[in-house]
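Hi V.,

You were right to ask for the full record rather than a summary. Here it is.
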Amino acid sequence: MFSSMNQTLSKVLAVVAVSLFGVGMAQAQGADYGKPGSPINLVVGYQPYYTESWSGVIMRGKKFYEKYLPKGSKVDFEIGLQGAIIVNNMLAGKQQIGYMGDMPAIVSTTKSEVADIRLIGVLGISNDMCNVFLSSVDAPAFKTPKDALKWMNGKNIASPKGACSDRFVQETFTKEGIKPENYLNQNIEVITSNFRAKKIDAAAIWEPTATRLVEEGLAKRVASGYSVGVSDGAFLAMRADLIKARPDVAQAWMNAELDAQLFLADPKNAKEIIDIAMSVTTGFTRASISRALYGQSADQNGSLVRFTLPFTFTPDAKKLLTTATTFLKDMKSINVAELRSDALVTEFADNALKARNLKAPVGSVPVINPPPN
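Predicted structure:
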């Protein structure tokens, strides 16, 4: 079952790569980013529906980049409902910067025959921002998260393929020896509809949708990455042609990203952050947004940190990338066992930290009980 699923995913990625090859190469060759110091137009893919990447939401709302980019520059933010959509737009040259989860971030660096994409920063590391298992409301009352996972044997499980939750499902089921009846490729809208119609038994999804489905009474939270020791992460990607042509812009963006992560880490900003997130999302109550970012669930083992903000490639961030890349290769989701040597560009994040005499991680998003409104 997993073998056929991964073959399907590999074929999908291959088709995407082939279809975008001509477009990506043409746009890359024709891209004119201007000379260092001159104004630039940027298109940024971001995910307001993925809590761990909300420094991008803050960047859009607070416009920290205006302080650092050359005067006269223009930045457009485009929503991606999942990271794979942003990857495709970056490969096609439609976006130059992208905020995304770990699996799409890794995949983006393996498509150099289409376009060269590098990872330049780390947005967050956690165990349950992307790694959340929900069951139907009709599922039994499990004593432990491991009991819930065992129950998933022979059941219909869903997750958006190619997303960070997809890696979590595959890794968890392999680790725990779980064999579902079907592992279905469904986006968050379809998963929501199918929980409502009771057509699926469980799903893996990310915050804040996971919290919304629970609070709407459509699903129960039964396990997460805390339950099986599996981490998730979010990363900042940038096209290599932009980095090469405009290192001033790459540095400016990371300077602004540092502002955004420091803002996110400060609990004094909680209400404003919730305001900003509410302004770019639909279908969520303020309570759901607040709990997704600051709330604590029973399966979090008492952790007082929702996610850390490494900013640059700390040992934990590198370990996650290494482990995830090897796993995805073993599952035949990608064709490389390790990231290429130049996939990570650390100098701009490191320069930003050095200029302010800061060290990574730059902070964390705390649990706040009760979550602010």
